[in-house]
Design a protein that fits this description.
By secondary structure, the protein is mainly alpha-helical. It contains 10 helices and no strands. Helix 1 crosses helix 4, helix 4 runs antiparallel to helix 5 and helix 5 runs antiparallel to helix 9.
Length: 214
């Protein structure tokens, strides 16, 4: 996606998604100040006129990027926290899938949006809302398995802040090898839950994240 190239076709005006994906790639590469109509049109080999066939202005495009972030990262976190699980440890491992599968939770986008929010107060408000919604979803997950409100809230914040802190240190996403990261996941889940992960739960989790050792 970072090397997005579009074949020029006579009369082709692109699509709304093509512009959003180009803006997404630019945001990750260079930050929000680089997401501008003219550089994007040059990147895509499309005219500025084609941009205005899909968006009213730059702010409309930026709004689409924010919606992408909300849907993917906040939406998927909430869904994952509500997935079926037999125990709190299995529920936590379900959430951990987010940290390992970029299609579910885009850590690089999360990092970029948090940086962007430093210079955009309206986005900062949306970020605050997202943090609150995510922690509330995690808290509800703990409460579902019998934790009282205070313990559920503290554990939810611990799970969330640990991962957001990790993301804040990794501009280009996780760089450490997958295998040792996976091995640590079981112990993180035990710490967050206050009870051990069963071998069956661990096996189901690892089956979703096979490591290619070839």
């Amino acid at each position: 996606m970072n090397d997005l190239l579009i074949e020029k076709t006579s009369g082709w005006r692109g699509t709304r998604d093509v512009w959003i994906q180009a803006a997404y790639a630019t945001l990750l590469e260079s930050g929000i100040d680089a997401v501008k109509v003219m550089p994007l049109s040059e990147r895509l080999g499309l005219s500025r006129t084609s941009f205005y066939g899909h968006f009213t202005d730059r702010n409309d495009l930026l709004g689409a990027l924010i919606s992408l972030w909300q849907s993917k990262n906040t939406g998927n976190l909430i869904k994952r926290s509500e997935d079926y699980a037999d125990s709190i440890t299995e529920a936590i491992l379900n959430v951990f899938d987010l940290w390992l599968l970029p299609d579910l939770f885009d850590s690089r986008l999360e990092f970029a949006v948090r940086n962007w929010a430093h210079s955009d107060m309206r986005l900062a408000d949306k970020l605050e809302d997202a943090d609150r919604l995510r922690v509330s979803a995690l808290q509800a997950m703990f409460e579902r398995f019998g934790f009282d409100t205070l313990h559920a809230n503290v554990r939810a914040n611990t799970v969330y802040q640990t991962q957001i802190g990790y993301i804040s240190m990794k501009k280009d996403g996780p760089t450490d090898p997958l295998e040792p990261r996976l091995k640590r996941m079981r112990y993180y889940a035990e710490i967050f839950a206050g009870q051990p992960v069963s071998d069956a739960e661990a096996a189901r989790f690892f089956s979703r994240h096979p490591v290619d050792t070839a």
